[in-house]
Amino acid sequence: MRPFVYEQPSDISDAVAIASRFTTNDDQPTRANAQFIAGGTNLADYMKLGVAEPNRLVDLNRLKDPGLRQIRVSEDGVRFGALVRMGEAADHAEIKRRYPVIADSLRLAASGQIRNMASLSGNILQRTRCEYFRETSWSCNKRVPGSGCAAIEGFNRQHAVLGGSDACIATYHGDFAQALIALDAVVHAEGSRGARKILFSKLHRQPGETPHIETDLVADEIITAIEVPALPWARRSLYLKIRDRESYAFALASAAVALDLDSDNVRDARIALGGVATVPWRARAAEQSLQGKKLDEATATAAADAAFAEAQPRQHNAFKIELGKRTLMRALLETRDMKV
């Protein structure tokens, strides 16, 4: 790991000011000389590998604003402070009762030790675990723009079948993000240009020709909160994760589902897919295919087909299409049968 300067500001404005001094308007957060750190479970790992090489770390853990560490549940929805730990949110009684898909996604995301360290804001900004991104001897457009994508012709079993491009097929590996995009979450951010709200669906960018530009954030912006609007029928929701082993593994395919039902007929559906896409993936075509229909095996199958209609498999990951369909079908039917 290369040497770096370590900063511990006490308020958000100081943290933003430090980042602003050592970055420019053109810097991407993941490539900036000054980068923010909270739990450190992702950035510290990539610094050790030589993938991330910031000259300065701005530790957010001493920021005084108590709202950064609070979970507020109301009739308007839920607001998570950016520094709330994954474990706190997963174990929160009202989150488990009102938004089980959120609690499920956090509980299944990592080991207990990591959940106790990792912040919610850091979790949604985690970077891919693509082997070619992590190993600096391989070409990777996300790590070194213009160098090529070794995964396309390499071993690509874990890679994305949705949202990829000729420049990048790296999978987004998070779980919590699938619940957030399904439930129309909003992210609050603050930087030198002021405070703003970002629809969670607009936060992450598909790779296109610029896979190194991963989010809509700029280098001196700090996420301060995540809000999920009130959705009373989100009590009928779950997150299903399929992986190579049951303990501490990333998804091969996953589905976040929330259903508004009249008997077995679908009034509204929210669906997001994980493990199969380059970004948190809202399956809107699948949602639309269910509207006004009785949810049974036939309509669940049709929804799954719609969700993967534009999938583009590579040599080793074609199995993800069928696995993803079966995962979504199972999640839909299990959500339908929940007792709420």
Notes on the structure:
The chain is of the alpha+beta class and 340 residues long. It has a domain at 235-336: 2-Layer Sandwich (Enolase-like, domain 1). Helices cover 30% and strands 20% of the residues. It is built from 14 helices and twelve strands. The protein has a five-stranded antiparallel sheet with strand order 4-5-8-6-7. A hairpin with a 2-residue loop joins strand 10 (253-262) and strand 11. Helix 5 packs antiparallel against helix 10 (176-182), helix 12 packs antiparallel against helix 13 (297-307) and helix 13 packs across helix 14 (319-336). The model has no long low-confidence stretch (mean pLDDT 95). Pfam families: CO_deh_flav_C, FAD_binding_5.
Topology:
Layout: E1 5-7, H1 12-21, E2 34-37, H2 43-49, E3 56-59, E4 71-74, E5 77-81, H3 86-91, H4 93-98, H5 100-107, H6 112-117, H7 120-124, H8 131-134, H9 150-153, H10 176-182, E6 186-191, E7 194-199, H11 200-203, E8 222-229, E9 237-242, E10 253-262, E11 265-274, E12 281-282, H12 284-290, H13 297-307, H14 319-336
Parallel strand pairs: 1-3, 2-3
Antiparallel strand pairs: 4-5, 5-8, 6-7, 6-8, 9-10, 10-11, 11-12
Helix pairs in contact: 5-10, 12-13, 13-14
Question: Which features would summarize this protein structure in a list?
Answer:
alpha+beta, Enolase-like, domain 1, four-stranded antiparallel sheet, 14 helices, 30% helix
